[in-house]
Write a sequence for this structure.
C-alpha cells in the first residue's frame, strides 16, 4: 500500500521546503506568540482579573485549544494548496502514491503543531498562572493526542480545500465541525490536567481525564484511518 | 526496455458543459512516435493527461499493455508513464538536484546521486544542478522537465510542447530524447504546434476545430492500420 522510503521522502521534502520558505513556521509562530501575549495582557492587566484557580485553568484550557485550532488552520492547511498553486502537484501525482503523499504531509504537519504546542502550552500556563496544580504527564498526553487529531483532520481538509477555487476561510469552516468532538474532550482533559475537579479531592487528575484521553486517542486513530481511506479518491480524481 | 502497446478507443472529455475532446482512437506499439498536432486549446494537453492517468476521461477506454500485462488502474498507469509539459513545475526553493532526487525517491527508482547528476548533465544543466529552481530561466526549467521525464525511464513517454522556450541545442536535445526512447522500444506521444517538431513522429493525429467550436475532435492523419479514421500522412 505504501512504503517507508516514499513517506520519508515526502516528509523530508515538506520539512526542507518549510525550513527554506518559513511560510507556515512564521504564520503559526506569530499567531501563537501574539495569542499568548494578548491573553496575558487581557487577564493580567491592571487591575488583574480576580480568578480562582479552577477558573484560571479553564480559561487557559480554552485559550490553548483556540490557539492550536487557529494556528493549525493558518499553517497546516497550506500543505496541499501550495502544491496546487505552484503546479508541483502534477509531478507529485506522476511519481508518488497517494497514501505516501498523505502520510508524509500528515507527519510533517503533526510535527509542526506538536512543536508549536510544546512552546505555546507552557507559555500560556505561565502567562495565566494556571499551573499550580498541573499534572504534566496527563497534560502532555492530552495535548499530544489532540494535536495528532488536529493534524490528521487539517491535512485531509487542506487537501479538499486545495481543489476549491475559493479557499479563503474554507479550511476553518470545514474542519471546525469535524473537530468539535476533539475539542470537547481536549478542553475537558486539559482542565483536568490543570487541576480542575481534582483539587477538591474528587478524583486524581488521571481518573478525571482518562475518559477524555480515550476519546482523543480514538479520534486520532479514526481520523488518520478515515483520511487514508478517502485520500486516494481525492488525490486521484 | 519492456514491450508496450497502447490502444485508445473513442476517448471523450467534457469539463461541465464544455466538451474538449470527442471520439479519439489510436493505437501505438513499441518503438513508435505519434505526434499530436493542433491549434491552441484543441485538447492536445488534455489528451496526454488522460493517457497519463492524470485526468479521467468522460467516455472511451485506454488499454495499456506492458510486457503482455494490462495496466488498468490510473495509479498503476502513472508508474509506466513519464511526462514533460509546460504545466509541470518543480519546487522553486529546492535545487534541481534536490528536486530530481525527491521525485526519484518517491517513485522508488534505483538511481544514485551520480545518476541524477548525469541526468542533469545530459540536458545541459550539469553546472547548475545546485541552484534553486526558482532562479532558473524558462529554457532551463524546460530542460529540467526533460531530465525529469527521462530519469523516470518508462516505456511510455508523453511530451507536451517539449521545445517550448528552448534554444537550438535544446531542440536537438528533444530530438535525441525521442530517438533514444524509440531505440529503447518505448512509445512516445508528442503534442506540438510546431510542424517541424511534428516531423519527429512516425505519424500524426491532428486536433480539429479547437477555438471556434464547443468541442474538438482529434482526427487521425497517420498510419491507417493503427489509427482509426486515419488519413495517410505522406
Amino acid at each position: 500500500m505504501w512504503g517507508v522510503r516514499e513517506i520519508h521522502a515526502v516528509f523530508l521534502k515538506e520539512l526542507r521546503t518549510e525550513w527554506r520558505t518559513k511560510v507556515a513556521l512564521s504564520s503559526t509562530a506569530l499567531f501563537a506568540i501574539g495569542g499568548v501575549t494578548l491573553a496575558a495582557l487581557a487577564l493580567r492587566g491592571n487591575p488583574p482579573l480576580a480568578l480562582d484557580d479552577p477558573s484560571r485553568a479553564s480559561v487557559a484550557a480554552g485559550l490553548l485549544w483556540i490557539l492550536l485550532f487557529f494556528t493549525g488552520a493558518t499553517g497546516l492547511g497550506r500543505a496541499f494548496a501550495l502544491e496546487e498553486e505552484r503546479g508541483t502537484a502534477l509531478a507529485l501525482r506522476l511519481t508518488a502514491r497517494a497514501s505516501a503523499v498523505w502520510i508524509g504531509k500528515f507527519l510533517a504537519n503533526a510535527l509542526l503543531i506538536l512543536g508549536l504546542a510544546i512552546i505555546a502550552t507552557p507559555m500560556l500556563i505561565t502567562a495565566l498562572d494556571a499551573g499550580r496544580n498541573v499534572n504534566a504527564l496527563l497534560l502532555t498526553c492530552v495535548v499530544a493526542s489532540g494535536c495528532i487529531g488536529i493534524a490528521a483532520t487539517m491535512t485531509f481538509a487542506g487537501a479538499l480545500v486545495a481543489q476549491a477555487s475559493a479557499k479563503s476561510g474554507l479550511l476553518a469552516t470545514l474542519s471546525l465541525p469535524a473537530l468539535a468532538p476533539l475539542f470537547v474532550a481536549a478542553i475537558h482533559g486539559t482542565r483536568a490536567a490543570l487541576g480542575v475537579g481534582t483539587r477538591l479531592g474528587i478524583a486524581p487528575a488521571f481518573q478525571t481525564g482518562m475518559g477524555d484521553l480515550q476519546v482523543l486517542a480514538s479520534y486520532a486513530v479514526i481520523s488518520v484511518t478515515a483520511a487514508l481511506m478517502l485520500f486516494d479518491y481525492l488525490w486521484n480524481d | 526496455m519492456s514491450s508496450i502497446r497502447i490502444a485508445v478507443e473513442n476517448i471523450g472529455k467534457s469539463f461541465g458543459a464544455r466538451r474538449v475532446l470527442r471520439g479519439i482512437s489510436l493505437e501505438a506499439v513499441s518503438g513508435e512516435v505519434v505526434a499530436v498536432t493542433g491549434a491552441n486549446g484543441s485538447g492536445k494537453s488534455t489528451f496526454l493527461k488522460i493517457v497519463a492517468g492524470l485526468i479521467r476521461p468522460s467516455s472511451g477506454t485506454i488499454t495499456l499493455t506492458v510486457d503482455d500485462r494490462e495496466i488498468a488502474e490510473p495509479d498503476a498507469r502513472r508508474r509506466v508513464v513519464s511526462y514533460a509539459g509546460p504545466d509541470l513545475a518543480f519546487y522553486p526553493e529546492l535545487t534541481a538536484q534536490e528536486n530530481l532526487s525527491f521525485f526519484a525517491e518517491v517513485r522508488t527508482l534505483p538511481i544514485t546521486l551520480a545518476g541524477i547528476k548525469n541526468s542533469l548533465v545530459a540536458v545541459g544543466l550539469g553546472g547548475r544542478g545546485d541552484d534553486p529552481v526558482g532562479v532558473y530561466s524558462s529554457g532551463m526549467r524546460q530542460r529540467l522537465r526533460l531530465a525529469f521525464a527521462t530519469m523516470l525511464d518508462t516505456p511510455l513517454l508523453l511530451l507536451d510542447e517539449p521545445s517550448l522556450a528552448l534554444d537550438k541545442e535544446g531542440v536537438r536535445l528533444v530530438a535525441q530524447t525521442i530517438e533514444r526512447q524509440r531505440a529503447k522500444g518505448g512509445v512516445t506521444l508528442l503534442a506540438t504546434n510546431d510542424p517541424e517538431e511534428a516531423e519527429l513522429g512516425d505519424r500524426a493525429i491532428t486536433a480539429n476545430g479547437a477555438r471556434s467550436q464547443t468541442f474538438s475532435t482529434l482526427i487521425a492523419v497517420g498510419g491507417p492500420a493503427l489509427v482509426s479514421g486515419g488519413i495517410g500522412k505522406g
Notes: Chain A has a mean pLDDT of 87. Chain A has one domain: 4-236. The CA atoms of residues 36 and 124 of chain A lie 6 Å apart. Residues 4-236 of chain A form one domain.
